[in-house]
Amino acid sequence: MSLNKIIILLALTASMVSCIKEPVEETEAPATAQEVYSAVAQGWGDTDPLTMAPNDFLFQETEQTIENNPKPFYVLQEGITISKKEEQTDSWLYTFLYQTKVYKQDQEGAQSTREDHRTVGKANAAVTMAQNALRAVKPYASLKTLAEDNQMSLGFERIYGLAGSCVKTDALDKYCKEDLGMDSCEIQCSNLKTADEVRPLPDMIKAQPNCGGFADCTYHVKTVQFNWTISLKKGESVETQKVNYSIALSPDMPFFSRMNEYCYRQLYTVQDQKVLVTTCTKLKNFKKGGT
User: What is the number of alpha carbons within 13 Å of residue 175 lying toward its C-beta?
Assistant: First the structure.
C-alpha cells in the first residue's frame, strides 16, 4: 500500500480530520533569510567534518503521524556506519554503510543495506560540505511525503539545506516554472524562535557504559523553529503552502551526530479534506569508532 493510500485511508477513518488546525500560527512575524541562516548556523556551531572516522555509527528513526493520532503510520529506521575514510589528492572519500527498515501501519517491510559515499575537500572542509549539501537539496522536496526508495541524508546535509531554505534560488525558480508549471514562486520565512535546553540522553546512548561519556546522562541542545511559506502563482490564482520546521542540535555531539531532531509538519489535501502530517527524524543512538 502506497503512502498516499495510507494517508487517504487514515483521513477517511479518523474522526479528528474535521477539526484539523493550521500547522503554523495565523500571525506571521517575518524573518529574513540571514536571520534564519544565522540561527541555524549558531545552533550547529563549529565542528570539523574531518573528525568523522571509520566505525562511527548512528541510529535514527523517522516517524510520520497525523495530528491528534500519536500512533505513526510510517516508520523508517536508519543505521549509518562509516566504513572507510580514504585520502585522495585534495580530498577525503568517505564510504558509508546505509541500513534501512520500514514499517507501514505496524507491518514490517524489507531490510536493506547498501554503500553510499561523500567527498570532503581538505581545504576548508566545512565549506565544501555545505556546498555539496546545498547542491543536493531538491527544491520543493519538503512538500512531499517520504519516498518509497529511501536515500541516505546525513544530518549536516539537512541542516545546510535548511539554512539556505529562505533564499529564492535560480534552481527553485526553474523548478517552479518548468516542473510545476507556475508563472512564479515566492518564499517567505517567519516566526523564528530559538532556545537552549538540557535534555536527558536518548535511551540507547544512556544504556552505554558511563552514559556514553556524558555527565549526568544529559546533554545540551539548541532548538530552532520557523515557518517556511511558498506562494505558487499561476495567472490570477495564488496557492500558498506552509511548513513548520523544528530542529534540535547538540553542541555536545560530534559532527556526524550533531543533528538530534529534524521535524516538519504541513497540511495535505486528501479528497477535499485537510490532513496535518508531521514528519520527525530523531537520533536514537551514536557510537564513536572503537567504543
Answer: 12
Instruction: Look at residue 253 and tell me whether its pLDDT is greater than 60.
Output: yes
DSSP run (H or E) holding 65: strand 57-66
Residues facing residue 186 across a β-bridge = 231
Which strand ranges, in their side-by-side order, compose the sheet holding 273-287?
A: 30-31, 184-200, 218-234, 237-249, 259-270, 273-287, 57-66, 69-87, 91-104, 107-121
Rg for the chain, CA atoms, rounded? 20
Share of the chain residues as helix, strand and coil, in percent rounded to the nearest 5: 25, 45, 25
Phi, psi (5° rounding) for residue 121? -70, 145
What phi and psi, each to the nearest 5 degrees, are found at residue 254? -75, 175
- Dist. CA 225–CA 247, nearest whole Å: 6
SS3 string, 137-167, reads CCCCHHHCCCCCCCCCCCHHHHHHHHHCCCC
pTM above 0.85, yes or no: no
Strands 218-234 and 184-200: antiparallel
| 146-152 long-range contacts, CB within 8 A, separation 24+ | 146/3, 146/62, 146/64, 146/74, 146/76, 146/279, 148/2, 148/3, 150/76, 150/78, 150/100, 150/102, 152/78, 152/80, 152/96, 152/98, 152/116
Burial status of residue 60 (CB atoms within 10 A of its CB: 0-12, 13-18, 19 or more): buried
Q: How confident is the model at residue 149 (pLDDT cuts 50, 70, 90)?
A: low
Residue 277, judged by CB atoms within 10 A of its CB (0-12, 13-18, 19+), counts as buried
Q: Across all residues in the chain, what is the average pLDDT?
A: 82
Three cell numbers at 154? 546525513
Nearest one of 171, 169, 173 to 184, comparing CA atoms: 173
287 neighbors 56 (Cβ within 8 angstroms): yes
